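Team,

Forwarding the record for the chain on the shared tracking sheet. I've put the sequence and predicted structure together so nobody has to dig through attachments.
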Amino acid sequence: MSLMVAEVYEALIEAGTSEQKAKAAAGAIPIAGELATKEDLRELRDELRDEMGERFGKLERDLAVLKFAYGPVILALLVKIAFFP
């Protein structure tokens, strides 16, 4: 048990709770060092925002290449259909 959980356990025992219930309750409390802080969540959000921005940028560049490559092909097919049936 961590220090905080041990304090909760001892407080529950002193309050008259059974040892089994006190252990269960103290064990259910998360350890403070394992919880995410607001700053942790902000950093994660910023990292995800940057990563998604990079991915969308790459996707836009790839789409632009496809548009440029398929445009002449479609135009050539249309000209063939129109003038060479």
